Amino acid sequence: MDFSFQLKKEDSETGARLGLIDAPHGEVSTPVFMPVGTQATVKAMSSEELIEIGAEIILANTYHLYLRPGHERIRALGGLHRFMHWDRPVLTDSGGYQVYSLCNLRDMREDGVLFRSHLDGTKHLLTPELSIEVQRALGSDIAVTLDEVIPNPADYDDAASAMQRSVRWAGRCRDAMKAGSGALFAVVQGGTWPALRAECAEALVDVGFDGYTLGGLCVGEEKAVTFEIIAETVKHLPTGSPRYLMGMGTPADIVEAVGLGVDMFDCVMPTRNARNGTLFTPTGSISIKNARFADDADPIDPDCGCYTCRHYSRAYLRHLYLAREILSSRLNTIHNIHFYVDLIRRIRAAVEAGEYARFRGRFLAAWQKEKREPAKAIA
Fold first, then answer.
1. Which among 93, 141, 210, 342 is annotated as catalytic?
2. Residue-number span of the structural domain to which 355 is assigned
3. CB of 188 closer than 8 Å to CB of 196
4. 93 is catalytic
5. Active site residue 2
């Protein structure tokens, strides 16, 4: 057995959990945040910097790596870990969301989804079997089943049809994965319909997977609905398997979702926001291009221990951003990834101490306080 999950502790007041994943390329403590390495790189960061920050696992994108440079090329070069110089675990998504979000020309079929590449317009048929073949060629520690993603809002019949197809495709992925190593996580779909989510979760559990992901959320629904769906779905998932919420979200979102029983997260927010000059602090985000930072000699966060905060001022970071220097993206990303990884450390410590409810309340109060402050003028 090359993958296992050990549930180490459950919080007595909330749904928060502590766990340990044992994967082919190492152990991962949960809850965990996975920096997104879309094209075999976490944008603006080296593998050494990610390790120094404390990242335990990263996510890579099946769709993008299939199209460029190609999964067979990566396989021939020794697999994704060797290709990108990363010796810790990697989770790969199925490519389904990217087909949904990036391809205007796509045709959903029972055998798979026919789409045109956003790079050169060539046609490709992504089947459950091909998705697994690509992920196995990449050598990921955790693969994810191909699912049908639908827009929000969606009516009941459309959500039910996509959910049922996702279950059928998950079974085909399970069959294709049997001879491979690593773990396979199945995607729970069902739109914003709790009954469909429950039906999907129970059907996937009957098939049997190493972990379960909550997909099709954060696509335009109200945040209260997102959390309601999470809370209802986890009731139908086994306690002894990891639960992964795909593509979410803000620090406050993660704190809330941990309290509902979620173990794993990924999101492009810390890296994308960094490139746009938005930096995270315990009381909310700040825009470094704001004129009020022009002469500010303080670090982004005086209590942050990241490389950026130890060495550079807000004034300098503002200058780099306005001058469009490459170093701006690098230093900002180092800080934001550190913030997310450190937040996870604090979450784990609170669960271990039996104080997660108190931690959650304090964090959300501080975060929301910053959001109530008036906006400042941008130079």
1. 93
2. 274-371
3. no
4. yes
5. no
